[in-house]
Design brief:
Radius of gyration: 20 Å
Largest sheet: 3 strands, antiparallel
Distance between the termini: 50 Å
Shape: flat
């Protein structure tokens, strides 16, 4: 019980601690690990999908803001670059520089994501689970 009291007291005395422990949890689509080969890339793809869904026109290009991604996911700039590289190599993530604003813009290829998910699902059906025991 003393730990609970210590936590309550620390939260009352240190507002930054309260902000830290009250952050929203981060979730990502586990199936994206199967199509990207990386939990880091899966987290990035999930975050970018969320951003694109909230863009004014969900099928349009939108500005890539590394600071926003860092705030949301905790991914460092280097982690973002590594994840984006994987997504670009799989042609899931398209990037361009807007000549009028000089902003980096991105767009996700929903068709490619859908096809990759179908391929991964079919592959999982063909691969026997490691947890099964022979009869």
């Amino acid at each position: 019980m003393t730990l609970t009291k210590d936590l309550i007291q620390a939260l009352e005395e240190e507002p930054s601690l309260a902000r830290l422990v009250s952050q929203s949890p981060i979730a990502f689509h586990r199936s994206f690990v199967d199509i990207t080969g990386s939990a880091l890339s899966a987290l990035m793809l999930s975050s970018l999908l969320e951003l694109q869904e909230h863009a004014p026109h969900s099928n349009d290009w939108f500005v890539y803001d590394p600071h926003s991604i860092k705030t949301t996911t905790g991914l460092s700039r280097n982690e973002q670059k590594a994840a984006n590289k994987v997504l670009r190599e799989k042609f899931i993530l398209l990037e361009r520089k807007n000549v009028s604003t000089a902003d980096w813009e991105i767009k996700l290829d929903f068709e490619r994501i859908t096809m990759a998910l179908i391929v991964a699902a079919r592959a999982s059906l063909r691969t026997p689970s490691k947890n099964t025991t022979p009869h």
